[in-house]
Amino acid sequence: MHRLCATLLACSAGLLSGQITGPVTGFLYHSPTKSIRAISGVPGSAVLASPLIENVEFGSVSPDGKWALVRGADFTAIVKPGTVVSGEQRPAGLIPEIDAAAWSGSRLAVVVASSSAKVYQRVRLSGTRWVADAPRSFASLPGSLTSISADTTGAQVALGLTAGAQGSIYLAVNGAAPAFVMSGPVAAVAAFAPRGGTFYAAVSAPGVIEVFEGAARVGSLAFAAEDGSAPEAAALAVSADGKRLYATAKEKRALWSIDLATSQAAVTPLDEVPNALLPVGPRSWLLLNSPAKNSEPAVLASDSEQPVTTFVPALEGERSSL
Amino acid sequence: MIRTIRALALAGFAVSAWGQQLHIISQTGGSSVVVPNGGSVTIAATGVGSAATANLSLLNAGGTAVTISQIELAGSPDMTLASAPATPSTLAAGGLVSVAVQYTPASVAAASATLSITTLEAGAPVSYTVNFSGTVPGQAAFPNFVAGYADPVNDNAVPVLNGSVIAFPAAGDIAVTIENRGTGAGSIRQIAISGDAAFQVQHLPLFPVTIAAGGSMQFTIHFAPPARQAYTATLTIAFPDRTWTVEVRGSGAGAALPQYRFEGVSGTQAPLQQPGVGLSLTAAYTAPIKGTLALDFISDVFSANPAVQFSTGGRVVGFTIPAGETAAVFDNGQTQVRLQTGTVAGTITVAAAFTSPAGVSLAPEGEEKLSLPVAQAAPQLLGGDLSARTLSSFTITFTGFTTTRSLSRLDLQLNAKSGVRLDNGHLGADLRLPAANWFQNANSTASGGLYSISVPINLQGGRSNEDQTAHIQSVDITISNELGESNKLTVALP
Questions:
Q1: Which of B274, B254, B465, B206 is nearest to B364 (CA)?
Q2: Cα–Cα distance for residue pair A175/B131, rounded to 1 Å
Q3: Measured over all CA atoms, what is the biggest interatomic distance in chain B, rounded to whole angstroms?
C-alpha cells in the first residue's frame, strides 16, 4: 500500500489572496480600438476589458491566450498579452506588413503572411524566444490570399487564393514552395485539424468541403442552408478535440457544425452574419463576431456538439460613440 | 390648431423626416424641384404621337439604405414607365436612381397616371405616389384634383388619395386642401364623413362647388374624442365622375399611448444568463413610435455589475413601432434584444420611453417597469482543471461565481487511486479574508461575482524521485459563502 499525505501549499490568508482573481476567457484583437483586449469573465457574464496592448494595426492572439502577435506603426512583436511591447521582441528576420496569421495546432508556431507582398513565414517558439524561419513567396500564384492555415507544428501550410470567382488551394510542406492542390468556382478557405495532417478546404463547389491528408483528397463533406441551397463557405475551423468541423457562409446567419465521424451537419441559427471563426481561449470557444465598432459586442459560440452563442459587450465606460 | 400644406419646392435637400427617407426630384428644364409625396407632375407633349418624358430622380436623403421594393405606373395607356430601377433594389444613403415616365398622346383626350413607389425604410414599408397629367395642344381643358394635409406630428405633407388613411395622433383639427392642378375648372359634388361622431367635417362650402384651374379649397376635419379609445370614420369626396373614400382614424385622450407590456424574460433571473426581452403595445397606435429601453441595476451587495448590458452594447437600446403595429423592432432589427444578467445579486430594471417621430415624448397609459431580481445564493462552481504539476505537487485552478461577492470556505477532497492510502485526503481553508481582499479590490468590479482560484497542493510520501501526483485520481471541490455550499466540482488528474 502506497501512503501519501497531502497539504495545502497556500493555506494562509495572505497567500490565497493572490490566488483569487477574475476569470479570463481569452483575448482578442479589437479593431475599433486597435488593441488587444481580454474577455473578462466567463461567457454568459463577460465583458471586453480595457485594452492591454494599444496602437495595434493588426493583431492575432494564440487560441490558448498565451501569445499575441501585434503589428503597429513602428513595431511588430510576439508578446504575452498585457506586456509592454518593445523592439527587442521582434523576431529576427520577421517579414514586414503582416496582415494574416494562423496559429499551429500546438500553439507553438504561427504562420504569418503579408497579402500585399505575397510572402508567408513560419515563426516558432524556441525555448522562450520566437524564431522566424526563412520567408516564402507566393507571388507567382494567381489571386489574393483568402485563407491561411497551419497544421500542428506549422510545418504544413494551406494557402487559399482567390482570383475573381476562382479559388485555389495550395499546400506548402516543410518550407518547400506551395504546391497546387485543387481549384474551383468559389473563394478558397481551408482549416487544418489541430493534430495530424488532415485539412479541410471549401473550394470545389458551394456547400462542399473537401478532406485532404497532405495533398491527397480523401473525402468530402456537405452542408446546406435550411432552405436546401448550397452556401458558399466563408470560413472553416476544426474543434479543439478534432471531432467537428465548423463552417460559416457568406451572407448566412448560421454556424454549421459537421460531425467528422458521421459527416452529419447541424446548423445553429445566429442573429447576425458572422464575420469571424476563430478559436478563443483554452476552454473551447469560437469567436463569431469580431466587433467592427466600439459599441458592438463580440459574439462567441461554444465549441461543443450543440454550440451555444453568447455576446460579450465592451466594459461600460470603455465604449465611445463610434 | 389648423395646418395647411406647405409648398415643397426646395432649393436644397435636407434629410427628410423620419419615415419619409426618399426624396422625389423632378428634373425639368435644367432645374430640380422636389415633388412632395402625392404631388403632381405635368408632361407637355408637342402634338399627338409625339413623345414627351418626365425625368425623376429618387434620392435617399436618410442615413441608412432604403430598399425599393416596387415601382408601378397605373392610369392612361398613353403613359408608360420608360425607365426604372429593377426591384427589389437597395439604394444606399445619399444614393440616386432615375425614373422616367413617357407620355405619347394617341389623341387630345385627357391623360393621367399615378406612379407608386414602395420602399422599406428601417424595416417598415413606406409608400410614395406621384400623379402625372399629360397635356397636348388642342386638348380640351380638364381638371386634376390633388388633396393633402400636413401631418400634425411632424408637419410632413401627406397626400389624401382614394383608399388612403388620415391618422390623428391626438384630438385636434386637420385641414385638408384640395387643389385643381388641371387645365380646366372642375367641380366637387359633396364632402361628408360617416362613422364615429368624434369626427366632424367643418368649414365646408355649399355644394356643388366649382374650382378653377389652379384654384383650391380647404376644409377641416375636427376630432374630439369623448373617451380614451380608438375611433374611425369614413371621409368621402365626391366628384362628378368618381368618389374618393378615405379612412379617418384617431385615439382618445391626447397623445396617450395604449398600454404596453414586456415580452420574453420576466421574474427572478439566474445569474450568467442572456435572456431576450421584447415590448409590445396592447393595441396599435395611429402613428409610428420611436423609443428606448434602458437598463438599470440596483445592487444588493454594494457593487456595480458592468456585465449587465444589452446585446447591442450598453444599457440603452432603441426601437421603433410602425404605425398600426404593436411589436417593437429593436436596433438589431429583431423583436427581441438579449440582455446579460451578470453574476451579482440585485435587481435589474428595464424601463421604456416613447417618443413621436418628431421627438415629442409620449406618455403611455400606466408606466410599467420590468423588474428582474438576481438572488443572493450559495456560490456556484463552473469548471476547473489541473494548471500545474510537479512530482510532488499540483495546482488546481477553478472558476465560479458568488452573487453575494463573498466566500467563506474552501473544501477539497482528494481521491486516491486504488492501492493508495491517503492520510489526510480532506483539505480545507478559510476564504473570508482572501475573498474580501479580492472582492473589495477595484480590479474585481469588472468580474462581478466571478472568481478564479488556484490552489497548490503538496504531496508527501514515497521516494523523492517518484511522481506522487500519479497516485491521485481526482479532486472534489466545494466552496461556501454565508448562504450555503456550492455544487461539487470534480477535477480529474490525467
A1: B254
A2: 71
A3: 119
Would you call the peptide bond into B169 cis, given omega within 30 degrees of 0 as the criterion? no
User: DSSP code of B436?
Assistant: H
Question: Average model confidence (pLDDT) for chain A?
Answer: 90
Residue B55 identity: N
Residue range B119-137, pLDDT digits in tens: 888 777 788 889 888 888 8
User: A267 to chain B nearest CA, in Å?
Assistant: 20
Whole-number CA gyration radius for chain A: 20
Q: Which residue has the cell 476547473?
A: B384
Residue A212 contacts residue A253 (beta carbons within 8 Å): no
A171 beta partners: A158, A179
User: Taking CA atoms, what residue in B is nearest to A294?
Assistant: B313
What cell does B133 get? 397629367
CB-CB contact of B371 with B399 (8 Å): no
Q: What is the b/e burial string over A226-262, where b = at least 16 CB atoms within 10 angstroms of the residue's CB?
A: eeeeebbbbbbbbbbeeebbbbbbeebebbbbbebee
Per the listing, cell 491527397 goes with A216
Instruction: Write the DSSP symbol of residue A14.
Output: H
In whole angstroms, give the CA distance from residue B148 to residue B183: 20
Rounded to whole angstroms, the Cα distance separating B493 from B477 reads: 13
What are B432's three cell numbers? 473570508
Please give the model's pTM, rounded to 2 decimal places.
0.68
Residue pLDDT, tens place only, B258-276:
889 999 999 999 999 999 9
Q: Which amino acid is residue A321, in one-letter code? A: S
Touching A: B residues 265-304, CB under 8 Å: 271-274
CB-neighbour burial class of residue A161 (10 A; exposed 0-12, middle 13-18, buried 19+): buried
Q: Across the interface, do B461 and A4 touch by the CB < 8 Å criterion?
A: yes
Q: Is A321 on the interface with B (CB under 8 A)?
A: no
Peptide bond into B88 cis (omega under 30): yes
What is the least distance, in Å, from the CA of A208 to any CA of chain B? 30
Q: Hey, which residues does A78 pair with through a beta bridge?
A: A69
CB B458 within 8 A of CB B488: no
Which residues of chain B does A24 touch, with a Cβ-Cβ cutoff of 8 Å? 452
**B310 shares contact with chain A (CB less than 8 Å):** yes
- Search chain A and give the residue with CA nearest B399: A23
d(CA B260, CA B353): 11
CA proximity to B150, closest of B37, B282, B258, B278:
B37
* Residue B118: strand, helix, or coil: strand
How buried is residue B167: exposed, middle or buried, by Cβ count under 10 Å (0-12/13-18/19+)? buried
Position of cell 478532406? Answer: A211
Residue B431 CB neighbours (<10 A): 24
Number of Cβ atoms within 10 Å of the Cβ of B444: 20
CA dihedral A86, A87, A91, A97 (to 10 degrees): 110
How many helices (H) does chain A have, and how many strands (E)?
Answer: 1, 29
pLDDT digits (tens, 9 = 90+) for B80-105: 999 999 988 989 888 889 999 999 99
Give residue for cell 504531496.
Answer: B459
- Residue A316 CA to residue B309 CA, distance in Å, equals 8
In this structure, chain A runs to a length of 322
* Burial A112-129, CB ≥16 within 10 A → b, else e: bbbbebbbbbbbbbeeee
Q: Which residue of A has its CA nearest to B456?
A: A9
* Contact present, B130 and B112 (Cβ < 8 Å): no
What are the helix (H) ranges across B183-321? none
ipTM over 0.95: no
Which residue in the block uniquely carries the three cell numbers 494564440?
A62
Which residue ranges in chain A fall short of pLDDT 70?
1-3, 6-18, 87-88, 316-322
Cβ B140 vs Cβ B156: under 8 Å? no
